[in-house]
Write a structure and sequence with these properties.
paralog of FGE (formylglycine-generating enzyme); five-stranded antiparallel β-sheet; 8 helices; alpha+beta; rod-shaped; four-stranded mixed β-sheet
């Protein structure tokens, strides 16, 4: 095959590749179309190179044909069939030139499209950059606005914090003043009470002395009166006879007769007794009963039918005591003070513990009360309602065969007093480490409950009747002791939508530590400062 034929074949192949690239470029995206346009440019360059090569080869062939011998050329012309070489070459050249023209036209069109795509791409980039710039500006504006709002909010919160801090300081200052005033009032009230007690004692001694002297004078006056009457009775007949004899010897005038008649009439009438002025009685107020040494009759634990033992119980003797506050007490719900009479009963030495209550809860499927992370075991059970406590006593009754229940108000106060009339069963002052309260000087003050039995017991042997936890009772609410019966273990009736709660707790202040303190709660109440102890009916 001649070089010209090879060049033509190569040109045709390149033209096919070019056409294929054009078809693919129409369906491709801008980036792919640009790449294919670049490849098409390379193909056009190769086609142009082939065209130049073909032109050179044709020129060389013409030159070689002119130099050949005319004779040989003629002979050859005779022997060979004439071929239209020149005309076919020209036709091929024209065809290639036409195709090249078409290729150049298509290339121009592609370049125009590529330029349009490039411009569109640049426009798209420009729009994209503008959009990004707008988004960035908007984001910055939003950030600045949010920062301003945040700064305003911070300033507002700082101002509010400063205001609250000022209010807190003023409240703290006022609280300190109030506490100081309460302390002064308390000291004054104590001094007044002491003075009142001293005055009462002095009045009592003075009244006794006056009563004694008055009795002496009344006795002396009575003796003198009796002696006078006796003397009159003894000497009156003698005087009458002497005077009668003397008057009989004297003549009487009319006036004297009238006087004498009147005198006789007056003597004949019985003389009305003279009423003595009433003697005013001095009413002496009952003094508080003397403190007596009391002790529990026995200490025991009932066995549970399911195994184990119940709470430690103290059997208390029957007795009487003055229940409530004195007449001078400012607490109206603890008045009037009255004498209560109780039969013998047994009461728990300690408040019911978590260890004891958990046995009941697990065996009966009850929910375990929360201990606030203070521990269980010997800690007094807390977060139990009145109904929970009653359910525990009923379970004890079933397990032991003895009747258990919550103590009544009067049973609780009788057991807590234990024959003591002081402020506290250990003395007149709170002191240190005698109980668990907010000011008792213990390791648990104001923070949490303490294990039962951590402090000294009272005369009956009961622990924690002051401080640690408040205790449920079976008694319904009564606003005071007015019309309270003297007999019976419990004052029945009242408002049973609230139950009486006695004792004080680990966060109680000194003013709430008295054994006469009364509280009332809804039976559904569950708090971390409220528990209970039990009573067995003997």
């Amino acid at each position: 095959m001649s070089s010209i034929s090879q060049a033509k074949a190569e040109a045709k192949k390149l033209i096919k590749q070019y056409n294929k690239l054009q078809a693919e470029a129409r369906n491709a995206d801008s980036a792919e179309a640009a790449r294919k346009a670049s490849e098409a440019d390379k193909i056009v360059s190769q086609i142009s190179t082939l065209q130049s090569t073909i032109t050179k080869l044709q020129a060389r062939d013409k030159q070689n044909s002119a130099q050949v011998n005319p004779a040989s050329s003629a002979a050859k012309a005779k022997t060979r069939t004439p071929t239209p070489t020149k005309s076919s070459s020209n036709e091929d050249q024209d065809s290639i030139e036409g195709r090249i023209a078409k290729i150049e036209s298509a290339q121009k069109k592609n370049r125009d499209q590529i330029n349009q795509l490039s411009r569109a791409k640049r426009e798209l980039e420009r729009l994209k950059n503008e959009a990004e710039q707008n988004v960035e500006r908007e984001r910055r504006a939003n950030d600045e606005r949010l920062q301003q709002e945040l700064n305003k909010l911070i300033e507002k919160k700082e101002a509010e914090h400063a205001r609250l801090k000022g209010e807190l300081s003023s409240i703290r200052s006022q609280a300190e003043k109030d506490a100081e005033m309460l302390k002064v009032q308390r000291d004054a009230a104590r001094a007044m009470m002491e003075k009142h007690k001293q005055t009462e004692r002095e009045n009592l001694l003075a009244s006794r002395s006056r009563s004694k002297n008055k009795g002496l004078w009344i006795g002396l006056g009575t003796g003198i009166t009796v002696l006078s009457l006796a003397a009159v009775a003894l000497f009156t007949p003698v005087f009458d006879s002497v005077i009668g004899d003397f008057k009989a010897k004297l003549p009487l005038s009319n006036t004297e007769k009238n006087v004498h008649t009147t005198s006789l009439n007056a003597i004949e009438k019985p003389e009305e007794p003279v009423k003595a002025p009433p003697i005013k009685e001095t009413v002496v107020e009952k003094s508080a009963p003397k403190e007596v040494k009391v002790r529990a009759l026995k200490v025991y634990q009932d066995r549970l039918s399911a195994g184990g033992k119940g709470p430690v119980m103290l059997k208390l003797p029957a007795g009487k005591f003055l229940m409530g506050g004195k007449g001078s007490s400012i607490h109206q719900d603890e008045r009037p003070q009255f004498e209560a009479h109780l039969q013998s009963f047994s009461i728990g030495r300690y408040e019911v513990t978590f260890a004891e209550y958990d046995v009941f809860a697990k065996r009966t499927g009850q929910k375990l009360p929360k201990d606030k992370g203070w521990g269980r075991g010997k800690q007094p059970v807390i977060n139990v309602s009145w109904h929970d406590a009653v359910a525990y006593t009923r379970w004890l009754t079933e397990q032991t065969g003895h009747q258990y229940r919550l103590p009544s108000e009067r049973e609780w106060e009788y057991a807590a007093r234990a024959g003591i009339n002081k402020n506290y069963y250990w003395g007149y002052k709170v002191g240190a480490n005698n109980a668990n309260c907010s000011v008792c000087g213990s390791d648990w003050d104001g923070r949490q409950t303490s294990p039962v039995g951590s402090f000294k017991a009272n005369n009956f042997g009961l622990h924690d009747v002051i401080g640690n936890v408040l205790e449920w009772t079976v008694t319904c609410f009564h606003s005071s002791y007015k019309n309270a019966p003297t007999g019976g273990q419990n004052w029945e009736g009242g408002d049973c939508s609230r139950r009486m709660v006695r004792s004080s707790a680990y966060r109680s202040f000194e003013s709430s530590l008295r054994v006469t303190k009364r509280n009332k709660y809804n039976p559904k109440t569950r708090i971390d400062s409220l528990g209970f102890r039990v009573v067995r009916v003997d």
